């Protein structure tokens, strides 16, 4: 298992390399990317090392006596990109490029070539990201964020090498063999403030990923996108992020592992898990300047 706390070019390159080359003398047949949106390194470390994420211990090793990561390769010096927001960070994670190269400079930006503003998190924007035109929106075919990319994705590279890939609920899936996208209602749930909406999205994502594996078997590369920890942090701060990881994400990982036990009993020996995040989070007091910046459109 690889745990990587933030976005970087290395995560993308190492994933492709591990798919195509042997790992420690053994053929590497499957890679699962667990993408935890908005999770700073210590926000995962704290509940894991406190024994509050028993399912994660199945991969990382026991957290007894505050020790952990005995079965994981851990990168401590990774950093996110600037701006450290979801859409630019996720684009960097799956292209290995910085925002100035891949073409998505933030969650909200002005497209000079088209002369229009882009906002991925309005009702029309978030549904367009997932290939659903709403309120007459245009340019949604293939996903709005995918269309904005100027760089090749991990999935396009994998396809050229004959590596199959499935992406579940992530806003970037360009070049994947198969993309499992949320419904319009699922996508709109991302704009809501209730914790149940966050949980609904992640629970539905995990359920559909398991259903895909049961019906079609395991792809070489699978991406699972957990967005709820970030949204919980937006709503109630970093403590809420840690609580969400232990209360929601960890049990969902356990359900996924249990399904793998049935689908492929040898999964622990033939699968590399790559845990990563697109950006971190720091609690701060709202200032008039911050409110002005956050309310700007």
Notable characteristics:
297 residues, 9 strands, 7-stranded parallel beta sheet, two-stranded antiparallel sheet, alpha/beta, globular, Alkaline Phosphatase, subunit A
Task: Note down, in words, how this protein is organized.
The chain has about 300 residues and is of the alpha/beta class. The chain has one domain: 3-Layer(aba) Sandwich (Alkaline Phosphatase, subunit A), CATH 3.40.720. It is built from 14 helices and 9 strands. The strands form 2 sheets. The chain has a 7-stranded parallel sheet with strand order 3-1-9-2-8-6-7. A two-stranded antiparallel sheet has the order 4-5. α10 packs antiparallel against α11, α10 packs parallel to α12 and α11 runs antiparallel to α12. The longest helix has 26 residues.
The number of distinct structural domains comes to 1
Order the strands across the largest sheet as they lie in space.
Answer: 3-1-9-2-8-6-7
How many distinct helices? 14
CATH class: Alpha Beta
Strand content: 5-15%
**CATH topology-level fold name:** Alkaline Phosphatase, subunit A
Q: What are the segments in which pLDDT stays under 50 over at least 5 consecutive residues? A: 4-10
- Which bin fits the share of residues in helices? 40-55%
Main beta sheet, described? 7 strands, parallel
Order of helices and strands: EHEHHEHHEEHHHEEHHEHHHEH
The assigned CATH architecture is: 3-Layer(aba) Sandwich
């Amino acid at each position: 298992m690889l745990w990587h706390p933030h976005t970087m070019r290395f995560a993308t390159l190492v994933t492709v390399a591990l798919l195509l080359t042997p790992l420690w003398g053994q053929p590497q047949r499957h890679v699962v990317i667990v993408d935890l949106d908005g999770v700073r390194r210590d926000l995962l470390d704290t509940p894991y090392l406190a024994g509050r994420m028993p399912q994660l211990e199945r991969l990382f090793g026991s957290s007894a006596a505050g020790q952990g990561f005995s079965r994981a390769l851990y990168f401590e010096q990774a950093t996110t990109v600037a701006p450290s927001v979801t859409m630019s960070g996720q684009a960097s994670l799956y292209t290995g490029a910085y925002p100035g190269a891949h073409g998505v400079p933030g969650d909200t930006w002005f497209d000079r070539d088209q002369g229009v503003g882009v906002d991925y998190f309005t009702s029309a924007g978030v549904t367009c990201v997932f290939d659903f035109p709403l309120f007459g929106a245009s340019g949604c075919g293939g996903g709005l964020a995918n269309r904005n990319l100027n760089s090749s994705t991990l999935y396009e590279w994998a396809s050229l090498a004959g590596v199959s890939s499935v992406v579940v609920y992530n806003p970037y899936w360009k070049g994947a063999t198969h993309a499992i996208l949320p419904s319009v209602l699922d996508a709109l749930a991302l704009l809501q403030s209730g914790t149940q909406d966050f949980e609904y999205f992640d629970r539905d994502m995990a359920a559909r990923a398991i259903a895909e594996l049961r019906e079609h078997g395991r792809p070489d590369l699978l991406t699972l996108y957990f967005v709820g920890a970030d949204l919980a942090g937006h709503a109630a701060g970093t403590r809420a992020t840690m609580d969400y990881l232990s209360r929601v994400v960890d049990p969902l990982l356990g359900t996924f592992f249990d399904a793998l036990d049935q689908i492929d009993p040898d999964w622990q020996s033939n699968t590399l898990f790559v845990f990563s995040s697109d950006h971190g989070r720091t609690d701060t007091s709202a200032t008039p300047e911050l409110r002005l910046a956050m309310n700007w459109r």
